[in-house]
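tool_call: predict_structure(chain=1)
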Amino acid sequence: MYPIVITLLFRLCNVNNVYESLFENCKYSMKIAIVGTGYVGLVSGTCFAEMGVDVTCVDVDVPKIENLKNGIIPIYEPGLEDMVLRNLKAERLHFTTRLTEILHDVQVIFSAVGTPPDADGSADLKYVLEVARTIGQNMQQYVLLVTKSTVPVGTAALIRQTIQAELDKREVSIEFDVASNPEFLKEGDAIKDFMSPDRVVVGVESEKARDLITRLYRPFLLNNFRVIFMDILSAEMTKYAANAMLATRISFMNDMANLCELVGADVNMVRKGIGSDQRIGGKFLYAGCGYGGSCFPKDVKALIQTAEQNGYELRVLKAVEEVNAYQKQVLFHKLQKHFNGELSGKTICIWGLSFKPNTDDMREAPALVLIEKLLGAGCKVRAFDPVAIPEAKHLVKANMTAVDTSSLYFANDIYDAVLDADALLLVTEWKEFRMPSWGVVKKSMKGPLIIDGRNIYDKEEMKEMGFIYDPIG
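tool_result:
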């Protein structure tokens, strides 16, 4: 019986090797590498591993890789830590600092390295092209390099040229493909977005690349296969266009909110009225104190730069950016108005630091602008966030050199934050801020002013409890 079983296994795996090789080759359907263990790379690699793919995540940051090998993750994302630990234990998820050591063993490489903005707002591609150079210098067999980072239109062509130039230097001819697979992950919901995507956008230029991507994503989309294949240039543009449209909706509603305050209308009613129109819909129509994070600000700037490099001005997006820059100061302006411009010596409580709930991401966060303005005006600031305080401390120390930060206190909880506060400013709509013990809050505060930067409270209820309540719009 055993010889028959072994023979069948050999046929199923289509190998004629020793037993170890047989079982190793049968163990996983695909082997891939993810270069970059930031937000996109780590989430993507872990989710692929969860679906049975053998994934090696690569990063040049040695301490980060050592921590990841021990299940210590560098970012806060609900559900990610448990998934990393589970796949480490199952030996489907691996971490290394050396891409060259695994090049011979992978079919697909995802590039998820950073593309930080240059001084003019354009994307810096040095890390993207360094990955391409490393592959061109060391590859020995066919590989598909897929760009997952958000990159300007035309980057895939630069990547192809970079790899080919290195192959030419080596005087070797090895087939390879490049592709674009932009990510559409929402921080705080990234696991769900990756495991059950509403669409997967892929730009390819060969059938071989298309077949590999189809095979890789099919397990995620068995019930409704929604991979949208297109040319690479269109895929690169799709990512920027999507984020620019969402940013536009946010800035549009913030503009409407500011006008509503001037004319006496209620932006929440306006939102419901226009959001019920099926041509518009209700998503991303919430007024607030500005958008932040790693995507919208960077991508809007990069798209504006791409247009200018091609002799065109994106006037709507420039306005979107201007509105957002103003909106990040709107809570400070409201506070000034309530105190007739006399803010020096006032104690101000801030609830929420991250740019949105369920993440510790402080990049371009409105709270950073607000804190700097308050400290510059001579305020004492008491701030609390459920997870973002360590990152906030780092960014304040690194960037707020123009103001005295000794008056900034990071509180232990929401009630510690409101102690003796003249005003409470809600900046990030974490769930634990939605139903606090208002009696405790009112007794702890020196003054009754609440400025709601996300419109999460009921105006009439707040007034009944004796607060002066000032929302957006």
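agent: The first strand starts at residue 31 and ends at 35. Proceeding to next step.
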